Prior knowledge:
- The chain contains no helices and eleven strands.
Amino acid sequence: QVQLVESGGGLVQAGGSLRLSCAASGRSFSRNGVGWFRQALGKEREFVAAIRWSGDSTAYADSVKGRFTISRDNAKNTGYLQMNSLKPEDTAVYYCAVGAYYGGRFADDYAYWGQGTQVTVST
């Protein structure tokens, strides 16, 4: 069993940056992929970014490519999402997830989810 806790969300102006963290406990997640998803009010949850267990392969949604960077520190059992050049349309609850070793783009690729952290980008 893995417990995930996200942190780092908040209110930021458009063009600003935030760094989300995803701390895992219960057991090591070093052999698992890590993903980030988001859900805006009234919309379905969508894929944002994912990273393979080894950290040598990443994937991004087109909407965040070039602005967001996913990373991980297996020694700290923590995943990260660096978000730069934020836009109002990035406003959502952001969730981290841990699951299949390859770090997939689909929610079904993940077995464990955090509770989410709110990111609000103002104009």
